[in-house]
Design goal:
Structural class: alpha+beta
Helix content: 40-55%
Low-confidence stretches: none
Strand content: 15-25%
Shape: elongated
Order of helices and strands: EHEEEHEEHHHEHHHHHH
Largest sheet: 5 strands, antiparallel
Radius of gyration: 31 Å
Mean pLDDT: 95
């Protein structure tokens, strides 16, 4: 390849902090996950009063046959039996009777028995059984869940900051871009699209707008070529930057990584390894890996400020 980087702008000179939203933990989701930890340890005990989630045994009396039952079981507040009757049962004591007037008629509910749902507090031994590396206590598990939330939020919130930083780095760097390299990158991507379409029984150059829908964000082959030509220069720049960064951080992509990629691709898309290799030739894999590495380097830099 004749194209090369003459000078790469130092991405650390770009202030990305104003582009990032402050991380706000979802406390409700956090507590839900902590409660889920206790699910295998929930037990049931005979009780005297109904609370939400308890198993209720009752007798119904009504002129309506549907509600004339000697013995009915339901979970209070689940909505699986009858919402109004379930809600009415909450707070009742064993032997107590309450009445409700429903559209079907008056219903009398007598509480025969209740099994209270006993949920233990999360404990370190519950966490230990999860088998998570470095996570042995409830406090560590809470921190682990917060980190997961933060990672997910960063994945979503960093998109604009990453694209801004990449534009700043590319525009502030100096490149020698060879037209043949640019054309090769475009043709390589066109060949990939052509192969993928062929594997689905279509001819790329003859595809209809309906066939493009959901596959590629264009309506015709000519629009696809124009889109790839427009994106080609920046992608070539990202590849060159990725190669430059790899020289200093030791990133490598080779046959071993390609083999793993092909195996993962075949598994994820439920295709043969032969089809996976046909759609993703080794040269394309290398180009995309190094172009992607440029994004990875910049993303890790942004992560420091999140």
């Amino acid at each position: 390849m004749k194209s090369r980087v003459l000078r790469a702008k130092d991405y650390r000179e770009v202030d990305v902090k104003p582009l990032l939203k402050p991380f706000a933990p979802d406390k409700t989701a956090l507590e839900t996950e902590l409660r889920r930890l206790t699910n295998p340890y929930i037990c049931w005990e005979a009780g005297t009063t109904v609370f939400p989630g308890d198993q209720v045994m009752c007798r119904l009396a009504s002129d309506c046959p549907r509600f004339q039952k000697e013995k009915v079981r339901f979970v209070a507040g689940s909505g699986m039996f009858h919402k109004e009757l379930e809600d009415m049962s909450i707070g009742m004591g064993v032997g107590e009777t309450r009445e409700a007037v429903l559209p079907e008629g008056k219903v009398s509910l007598t509480l025969v028995g209740v099994m209270n749902r006993v949920v233990p507090e999360p404990g370190d031994e519950m966490v230990e059984k999860l088998g998570l590396d470095g996570v042995h206590t409830v406090a560590e598990y809470r921190a682990y869940l917060l980190e997961q939330q933060k990672a997910a939020a960063f994945q979503e919130d960093s998109y604009d900051a990453l694209n801004h930083l990449m534009r700043e780095v590319i525009s502030g760097s100096e490149f020698v871009l060879d037209r043949e390299d640019w054309a090769e990158a475009i043709n390589r991507e066109l060949d990939r699209c052509r192969t993928l379409c062929h594997q689905e029984g279509m001819v790329l150059e003859k595809m209809t707008p309906e066939q493009f829908q959901g596959r590629i964000p264009v309506k015709s082959y000519h629009e696809l070529v124009a889109m790839l030509q427009y994106e080609g220069w920046d992608k070539l720049c990202r590849y060159l930057l990725g190669c430059r960064y790899a020289e200093s951080d030791g990133f490598q992509a080779g046959e071993a990584e390609y083999g793993k990629f092909i195996a993962d691709y075949a598994s994820s898309w439920h295709v043969s390894e032969e089809n996976a290799r046909e759609a993703n030739p080794y040269d394309s894999f290398l180009f995309n890996e190094y172009a992607g590495h440029a994004y990875t380097v910049l993303k890790e830099y942004i992560r420091k400020f999140y």
